[in-house]
Amino acid sequence: MDHDNMHNMPPPSPSSSMSNHTKPHMMMMHMTFFWGKNTEVLFSGWPGTSSGMYALCLIVVFLLAVIAEWLAHSPVLRVGGSTNRAAGLAQTAVYTLKTGLSYLVMLAVMSFNGGVFIVAIAGYAVGFFLFGSTTFKKPSDDRKTTELLPPSSGCVC
């Protein structure tokens, strides 16, 4: 087809298969931060429009971030000098679980809901405070006290 004929063609019409699958009750996906309980986080239709389910969503995202941070500072990940295959498998399993939870938190934040963003950051902060900071460490720990952020800490995204 030559270049002149392309300008005379009508624009393509929407495919009939696309128009048949459009649901009138689909929620709009936000591309900027917004505030409100009417959002979708991680799963289609969840938490929906219920205030109670939105609160549960915030609690779940907070706990996912805390658990991911707990796993990031797990002693299993710090086992050094061991060539034991079982220890290596345990390290791999914990690291994989931590990475998966971190990605779930990242996907939740991608809902662009301001509340979800705040609880995700708060969850990582509380998790680091409890498990990574020197606040609850004994002075006799083998780790350096000046090391604030170990390489396995935080979101892998």
Automatic annotation (TrEMBL):
Keywords: Copper, Copper transport, Ion transport, Membrane, Transmembrane, Transmembrane helix, Transport
UniProt GO BP: copper ion import across plasma membrane
Subcellular location as annotated: Membrane
Pfam families per the UniProt record, alphabetical: Ctr
Transmembrane segments: 102-131
UniProt key word Repeat: no
GO cellular component: plasma membrane
UniProt keyword Lipid biosynthesis present: no
Recorded topology in the membrane: Multi-pass membrane protein
MF GO annotations: high-affinity copper ion transmembrane transporter activity
Region (Disordered): 1-20
Signal peptide bounds: none
The family this protein is said to belong to: Belongs to the copper transporter (Ctr) (TC 1.A.56) family. SLC31A subfamily.
Name this polypeptide is given: Copper transport protein
